[in-house]
Amino acid sequence: MRESMLDPSGEGWEAAGHADPTAWLAIAGRLGAALLLAIFLFLLVRGLLRHRRYRAADALEPSDMAAIRSALADAERRTVGEILPVVVERSDRHPGAAWLSSLVVVLLGSAVLAPWLPWDRPVVLLAAQAILGAAGYGLAVLLPGYRRAFVSEARATEMAEEQAFQEFYRYGLHRTEGRTGVLLFVSLFEHRTVVVADEGIDACVEPDRWSGTVRAVLDGIAAGSLRSGLLAGVASAAEVLAAHFPWSEGDRNEIPERVIVREE
Q1: How far apart are CA 183 and CA 72, in angstroms?
Q2: d(C-alpha 209, C-alpha 211), whole Å
């Protein structure tokens, strides 16, 4: 006759090798929340440290502007082309990025603060999550470097290219006599450089020839110097133009040597 003993309290069951099968889910959840929190804090700190990189007002000093104007004057002594550098703080406000940040902070905050949130009181819970959402939205508005993480590269490219064409026509680069205007466009928030050349140039210069100009500007910015990037970009653009549109007697300066820097 075999007897079996049951423990009505359930104590000792785990010790017999039958651990709670859902325990690993709780551990994985805590680890996942910690990882997401670390990523969020990294983005936040990076946004704080890079805040000045996204401000057009701090982009160029008067001495930088003078150096670029001098480079433009030198370039246009080699070519009939007209080069205009334009730097803007951003090509679009990207409102969706702020809302996406709001949603992420609500979800992340709810996961990290789960043990302390009043899940049994829906009104208080919604109020707490609304505060988290407002914080996420506010951070995205105040810190462009943080907001940039919520903008896709495809959208950044699309908005920068669209803005570049608007700038080309805004400053009359399509009105030069030989249709030889060239826009050197930099959008700080999107991290994009775009070269827009008028139809007279496009008829002779392959679009790929401008890749070196774009790379020169981006390399300078990546090294922390917009001035160096623009100087290298102007020199590269002048080299391309001089090869196809060298300076000739009687050429007049249709676009003044200047650098345009705008917050919007």
Answers
A1: 12
A2: 6
